[in-house]
Structure formats: C-alpha cells, structure tokens
Amino acid sequence: MNFSDLGLSPKVLEAVTAAGYTTPTAIQAEAIPHALQRKDVLGLAQTGSGKTAAFVLPMLSMLEKGRARARMPRTLILEPTRELAAQVQESFESLGKNHKLTVALLIGGVSFEPQAAKIDRGADVVIATPGRLLDHFERGRLMMNSIEMLVIDEADRMLDMGFMPDIEKICKLLPFTRQTLFFSATMPPEIQRVTSQFLHNPIRVETTARGSTVDTITQMLVKAPHEAAAKRDALRNLLRTQDNVKNAIIFSNRKTTVALLEKSLRKHGFNAGALHGDMDQSARLKMLTAFRANEVTFLIASDVAARGLDIPEVSHVFNFDVPIHAEDYVHRIGRTGRAGREGAAFTMVTKEEGKYLKAIENLINKELPYFDNGAVEETEDSVKPARREARGRGRTKTEPKVVAIAKVEEVAKSVVVETAEKPAREPRVHTPRPPRHTHFENDAPNDNGFHDGNMPSFLIKR
Ligand code: AMP
C-alpha cells in the first residue's frame, strides 16, 4: 500500500514525501480513505502508531476547498493536554506547509488575546484543549457552527482527566452534519456511550490491541542503593557505562527528585534538563524544543510532564525510580523504541521497590533480567557525600553496591497499555475521577510504538 493509493490530493502527497514518509502506517492506510469519503471514523490507536497524520492528511485535503471566515473556524482538533495540542500543531504546520492555512492553537497557560486575535482573522483549523476552547466560546470570541470536521484525539485520556462533560458540551455546539474522527487507545463503556451519541455510522479501524508488544525495546534492571545520594551516584555510573546514548529520558516519581537530579547531573558535567509539572508552559515547551534539537541530551522528567510527548529517536529511557503504578512503566519505556526503532530501557531498583517491580512483571507477563557482570563500582566522588548524608540521618548501614550492566542479545518484549494524563490546568469539570494518589506525579499511562503485525515493514530495522 502506498500513500498514492489512499486518495489524497497531489499537494498532500507532496507534503508526505517531503516529510520522508514512504509507506502509510496501518492506521493511516485504514482510516484515510474513509476520512476522505467524509465518513465518521472511530480509530483505536495509540500514540506512536502514526495516528496524527491519519487525521491531519485528510483534513489538509478537505481544507483545500473553501476558505476561513472570521471567528468561524472550519475544523477543530481537540487534545487533552497543551503539550499534545502543541505537538499536533507542529505536525499540522509541517505537513501543511504548502497549504498556507491558518492554524489557531487554543491552550491554557498562555495569554488569551493573541489566540482570540488569530481566530478573529479567520482560522482554518483550531487545535485546542477543551477548557480553553469553551472559554473562547463563552466569551463570544468563537463560533462553532461552521466546523465541518471534528477530531477528538486521545479520548480515553480526556475521560481520565474529567474532560468528558466538556467534550459532550462541545459536540452539542457543533453542526449535526459535521464529520467526526475519534481516536482512543481503549474503549471503556463511557467512551462507547459518547461515540454512539456523537458519531454517525462510524467506520471502526483498529490497529493495536491492548497488551500487544513492542519488541524493539531492550529492558534491563539495575540494582540500586536506597539512599538518595548513592542512588544518584549509581545513576551517573550507569549513564557512563552506556556509550551509545544518543539522548535519553530519565524518569522519576517525584517532581522534587526531578529538580534535584537535574542539578546534580549538571554539576557532574552531564548535559541535562528538567521537565516537571511545576514548570510553566513556556518553560516546558522551551525545554522540549531544546531536547528535540539535541541541545539537551538527558531529559529528566516526571510522568505527567512527559506523557504523550512524541520525541522521535530517544535511544534510552532510564527509570531512576520504579514507577508506583505498573502501567506507568509501560508508558515510560514506550518513549524509546518508537516507530519501529530500537531502544533500551534501564530501571534502577532498590530493595524497597521490589513490590512495585513485581506488579510490573505481572502486568507485562515477563520477568525482567538483572545484569550483574562487569560491575559498575561506586565512585569516590559520590560515595563520600552519600555516606555523609547517611551519617547525617543517623544511619550506619553500608550502601549496597551498584550492579553492572551488560549488553544483551535478547530483545525483551513489553506490553503496551493505556495512559491518561493529569490536566495541564484543572478540568472545568464537575465529576472528575478521584486522583489515584496525591503524592506522586504519575497517572495512568499508555502509549507505545507499533505492534506485532502492525508495524510497516519499511520501519523494521534489518
Ligand atoms: P504519532 O502516532 O502520530 O504520534 O506518530 C508517531 C511518529 O511516527 C511520528 O514521529 C511521526 O512523524 C512518525 N510517522 C507517522 N507516519 C509515518 C509514516 N507513514 N512513515 C514514517 N513515520 C511516520
């Protein structure tokens, strides 16, 4: 199957070639022809499957006819988070660079007026988070009765974040005759209810199954000491043993640890940056841009801050802590090995974290290997502070030794499950699910690359 078989316009095909896409992914091959026939599409697909282009490309084709009018956008893409919305904007602008279309990004955390001014001038597409879109509507700055195509992306995350009442409200404000493309990684009953209410005879396309595997990620465990400074030392040693790290995300459970790790790694000469929920929107985007541009090699992140981000070609993921919720593990390691590329995921495990590891292994139905040859020794520079810190707290116990990493032949498999993300701003709503925890920055995860049987052959490394 080629892109030219899908019915896309010549201008869109040119953009696809310019983007370097040669073969459509499964979701693209399945969804695009139906979307071009103006049918509603219900897509079961996850981040990493190529679903953004699956809705952007037919939208571009559709937008070639007609033009935008003031305050009356023609198409609308709803995203659960600001980061995802900004990412989709980037894809839209890159794939649509020959189309000269106006894109308005309506997200919270940034000023309202420039967004309103853009809609005033006429936007072909609005990419929005639900809360900010309704703010614009309620202030009379936006009309929704000219929307011809609606995309609801990451619907199950929207649900988890308590956005469903907003989504329902928005759907009721749109013309009945609009086309709807609806994407979700899972289909819980609440989502099914919404789809049966707001989609008309949708074509269902499904490219991934919950629990399917990404087999390009090598997963390894590393024994680590419990004490904080010694654990940071262990991380540094681990990073030093890896000579093929192109760029990496280092995950931690707590925002405070993220900030501390960044400081510590920088102090030790690592090119590190942080991404956590306490940073404002512009700082987060700036950091992400720097990471994408390879100006920052190690991105230290909390789960919420990193969720759903499409950062291509991350060679390594390091879990500084074992995630408390097993699904977060799957989400974290899904940052690497995307789109059929190979990746490595290391998880540092203390004795205390054994129970969380067990839950992960149960979830992925696989025992993860430890590596204990070619030991990575504690280094002088940090053993001392580590011991000092331990003494300061009146502890005397000897820190466990950091254990080594070795290259593995076997490519481990991992299960892919769904994620949800905490809202960038509190949902406007009403009946949010109770938070699963307050202490840690993680929520339910989800996301992955391609899956067995779905990965286009052109993406497979031979
Ligand atoms: P998404 O699932 O939309 O987040 O896309 C995941 C990644 O796959 C992005 O980096 C896209 O640029 C890339 N991608 C999407 N479609 C294709 C394709 N047909 N060929 C190669 N890469 C693609």
The main β sheet shows up as: 7 strands, parallel
Number of domains: 2
What share of residues are in beta strands?
Answer: 5-15%
Radius of gyration: 23 Å
Explain what this protein looks like in three dimensions.
This protein has 462 residues and is an alpha/beta fold. The chain has 2 domains: 3-206, Rossmann fold (3-Layer(aba) Sandwich); 217-377, Rossmann fold (3-Layer(aba) Sandwich). The chain is built from 16 helices and 15 strands. It has helices spanning 10-18, 26-36, 51-63, 82-95, 112-121, 130-138, 155-160, 164-173, 189-198, 228-241, 255-267, 281-292, 303-306, 326-333, 354-364, 380-392; strands spanning 41-44, 75-78, 103-106, 125-128, 149-152, 179-184, 203-206, 213-214, 217-223, 248-251, 272-275, 298-301, 316-319, 343-349, 414-415. The strands form 3 sheets. Strands 3-4-2-5-6-1-7 form a 7-stranded parallel sheet, sandwiched between helices. The protein has a 6-stranded parallel sheet with strand order 9-14-13-10-12-11, with helices on both faces. Strands 8-15 form a two-stranded antiparallel ribbon. Strand 3 (103-106), helix 5 and strand 4 (125-128) form a beta-alpha-beta unit. It binds adenosine monophosphate. Adenosine monophosphate binds at residues 21, 23-25, 28, 47-53, 310, 312, 339.
List the keywords.
single chain; six-stranded parallel β-sheet; Rossmann fold; binds adenosine monophosphate; 462 residues; seven-stranded parallel β-sheet; 36% helix; 16 helices; 2 domains; alpha/beta
